[in-house]
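Memo subject: From amino acid sequence to discrete backbone structure tokens
Action wanted: Derive the backbone structure tokens from the amino acid sequence.
How to read it: Take the token row as a discrete description of the fold.
Attached in line: The record itself begins immediately under this heading.
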Amino acid sequence: MKLDSDRPDFVMSARKQNLDWLGKCYAKDLVQESPASKWVHLLELPSPFSSDEALLLCPISADKWLAWIPDHGEAILYTWQFCHQ
């Protein structure tokens, strides 16, 4: 199989995807009304070694968030999995 590297989007598409993570939010209208960039308390831990707090990064839908959890990494959290501090 031969890769078609002459396509204009062949090399650049991967780089463009990572330039603006906020642009990937599926529910951009929720960002201004929601606690984005806020620390929340996790009601269940993703692993026994992870922190019990998460930083909300971006809403994905009405009940899901992209979050960063110390000692774990990025995760998708449902709203019932955390509470606001």
Summary: Residues 12-17 form the longest helix (6 residues).
